[in-house]
Amino acid sequence: MDKIQINVDVITGEITQTITPFTAEELAAGQAADAAQIALEQAQTTAKESALAKLTALGLTADEVKALVG
Questions:
Q1: Sign of CA dihedral 31, 33, 37, 39
Q2: In whole angstroms, what is the distance from residue 49 CA to residue 18 CA?
Q3: Pick from 7, 33, 34, 31: nearest CA to 19
Q4: What is the share, in percent, of the chain residues with pLDDT greater than 90?
Q5: Is 16 left (phi over 0), alpha (psi -120 to 50) or beta?
Q6: What mean pLDDT do residues 1-8 have?
Q7: Distance CA 49, CA 53 (A)
Q8: Distance between CA atoms of residues 31 and 42, nearest Å
Q9: CA 40 vs CA 29, 37, 46: distances in Å
Q10: Which of 9, 18, 20, 27 is positioned for an S-S bond with 5, CB 3.0–4.6 A?
Q11: Cα atoms in the Cβ-side hemisphere of radius 13 Å centred on 61
Q12: Any bridge partners for residue 15, and if so which?
């Protein structure tokens, strides 16, 4: 996987493009960020499911839960 850097000289209008491979550290940081995002999304889904279950356990109908949560 390569990263592309594009530079534009606003005075001359010259555009240069540099293509370099990602370093191992950059790839690891990207993978860590992806894993963190996935974990966050899973935690949000779990929390929402738990909240819906609790509202249903309190006796609210599906329509009432939908009106509260959206």
A1: positive
A2: 47
A3: 7
A4: 79
A5: beta
A6: 94
A7: 6
A8: 16
A9: 16, 5, 10
A10: 18
A11: 2
A12: 8
- Cβ pair 47, 30 in contact under 8 A: no
3-state secondary structure 25-65: HHHHHHHHHHHHHHHHHHHHHHHHHHHHHHHHHCCCCHHHH
Tokens 């609790």 identify what position?
54
Looking at the whole model, is its pTM more than 0.70?
Answer: no
For residue 51, the one-letter residue type is A
